[in-house]
Amino acid sequence: MNRVFLASDSTCQSYDRKEAPQAGWGQFLQQFLKDCTVINHAIGGRSSKTFIQEGRLEVIANELKEGDYLLIQMGHNDSTKEKPERYTEAYKDYKKFLQQYIHTARKHHAIPILLTPVSRLHYVNGEFLVDFGDYCNAMKEVGEEEKCHVIDLMKLSVQHLTKVGIQEATTYYMVDINGTDHTHFTEKGAKQMAKILSSSLQLIIEA
């Protein structure tokens, strides 16, 4: 039985029923992965830096065993310059922190997989826009430098939103509920993002 650990932020975290319909894709990933156990350590408001500083990567490291997978989706909170405690510069410390996740996984003979940030609902002039461009690119650079798997979840999610169109896409995000939140998912959206990710992830696991 493969074990899949998740290190990420509020777009991935599991939410209590009282917080429904807000949800993270991590709480639905289990449904789409064959012969896997998903262990979700994602928590809101964390960047690649603060997740490590708070000892959360160390907690995962203490659980990791040979053959486990560590999925790392960071970037949403890394980009918030107005919150310097979270902020990382894309091509400098962000890359260094991502390397720490990779090296930690490999130290325990686990397999790291980088995930570019999942799409926000950013729709302008009939087109879904890609956010966090520097962070996506920096993560791909780390993937090449470290010979680490990278799943371009930003690209996959934007492609899916484009396919279904803005009316359907809006139902994926909490803006459909509260009129303001274009980042966090409804249960419907979180489940769809988990499904999108699982297809690429399953190919890596089965390779």
TrEMBL record:
One Gene Ontology MF term: hydrolase activity, acting on ester bonds
Entry keyword set: Hydrolase
InterPro entries: GDSL, RhgT-like, SGNH_hydro_sf
Keyword Ribosomal protein applies: no
Coiled coil location: none
UniProt superkingdom: Bacteria
Gene3D superfamilies hit by this protein: SGNH hydrolase
Similarity comment: Belongs to the 'GDSL' lipolytic enzyme family.
Designated name of the protein: Rhamnogalacturonan acetylesterase
Organism per entry: Gracilibacillus dipsosauri
